């Protein structure tokens, strides 16, 4: 199944040490991402000590901003194979903060935490003299880019770029209590490079982060004895009959057996030494 957006939720807090809210995941091959923007009380050196969903710890993707030096920080977290249904997201801070957090779930996503997301891209402007928030995220077709953008001062409301799909937008300029930073999250279809951008209604300090959510890696579809096996990245192209051992195992040019064959089925072993892309002609 193709990678697709499932649902979004968000929560805010003023001078809190944690945020807790319910998020519902529905579908198969689920993944959950959480974006958080916060300003510590008194610009203290506070951070996030952990994020959980249904009491399962999430993995940090990365962060931007210095809570003590810039008085703002944006962080993103991820979880593969989250529980389906309604469960609590809990974000725990090391001190009291003004914070916004948003969750976005996806279906048809990689079920491996290590390969669920690409490399996080970040951008930061502490000059307070710009109103355009922008970050360029490396991605690919078939992926979905998720961003978290924060206006750290009192510059005003955020407006998402028209090419993006806004998933949450909270803060003091968007109906929440005074002191809550303006923070938004959005998605956009993947491409080689995706620019995620927001505009603040007045110049302000800001921080933003974006990351590509990935679908599961495609599995080879091979049938022994039916034509030619073409393996990209390894040469030469060879007949399948030439690389099946007497033990019924498939061997590629000096590598240990990678697949076992049984009848008309090729079984991929749990541990592959070399990533391969294959096709049957």
Give structural attributes.
single chain, 7-stranded antiparallel beta sheet, mainly beta, 281 residues, 6-stranded antiparallel beta sheet
Describe it.
The protein has 281 residues and is mainly β. 1% of the residues lie in helices and 58% in strands. It is built from 1 helix and 19 strands. The strands form 4 sheets. Strands 1, 2, 3, 4, 5, 6 and 7 form a 7-stranded antiparallel sheet that branches. Strands 8, 9, 10, 11, 12 and 13 form a 6-stranded antiparallel sheet that branches. Strand 14 (228-232) and strand 15 form a beta hairpin. The protein is globular. The relative contact order is 0.18.
Distance between the termini: 24 Å
What structural category arises from helix and sheet content?
A: mainly beta
Fraction in helix: under 10%
How much of the sequence is in beta strands?
A: over 45%
> Strand-and-helix sequence, N→C?
EEEEEEEHEEEEEEEEEEEE
DSSP E strands, number: 19
**What Rg do the Cα atoms give?**
23 Å
The number of distinct helices, counting runs of at least 4 residues, comes to: 1
Principal-axes shape call: globular
Low-confidence stretches: 222-244, 253-281
Q: Average pLDDT, to the nearest integer?
A: 85
Major sheet details: 7 strands, antiparallel
């Amino acid at each position: 199944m193709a990678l697709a957006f499932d649902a979004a939720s968000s929560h805010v807090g003023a001078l809190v040490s944690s945020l807790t809210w319910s998020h519902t995941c529905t579908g198969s091959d689920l993944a959950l991402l959480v974006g958080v923007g916060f300003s510590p009380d008194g610009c203290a050196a506070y951070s996030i000590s952990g994020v959980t969903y249904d009491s399962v710890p999430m993995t940090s993707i990365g962060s931007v901003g210095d809570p003590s030096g810039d008085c703002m920080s944006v962080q993103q977290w991820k979880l593969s194979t989250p529980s389906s249904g309604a469960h609590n997201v809990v974000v725990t801070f090391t001190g009291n903060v003004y914070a916004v957090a948003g969750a976005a779930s996806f279906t048809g996503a990689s079920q491996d935490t290590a390969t669920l997301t690409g490399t996080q891209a970040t951008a930061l402007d502490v000059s307070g003299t710009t109103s355009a928030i922008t970050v360029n995220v490396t991605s690919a077709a078939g992926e979905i880019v998720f961003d978290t953008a924060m206006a750290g001062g009192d510059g005003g409301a955020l407006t998402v770029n028209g090419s993006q799909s806004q998933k949450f937008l909270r803060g003091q300029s968007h109906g929440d209590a005074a002191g809550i930073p303006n923070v938004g999250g959005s998605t956009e279809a993947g491409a080689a490079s995706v620019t995620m951008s927001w505009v603040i209604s007045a110049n302000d300090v800001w921080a933003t982060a974006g990351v590509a959510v990935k679908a599961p890696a495609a599995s080879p579809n091979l049938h022994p004895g039916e034509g030619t096996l073409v393996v990209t990245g390894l040469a030469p192209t060879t007949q399948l009959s030439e690389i099946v051992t007497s033990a019924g195992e498939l061997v590629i040019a000096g590598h240990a057996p990678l697949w076992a064959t049984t009848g008309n089925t090729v079984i991929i072993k749990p541990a592959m030494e070399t990533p391969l892309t294959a096709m049957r002609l």
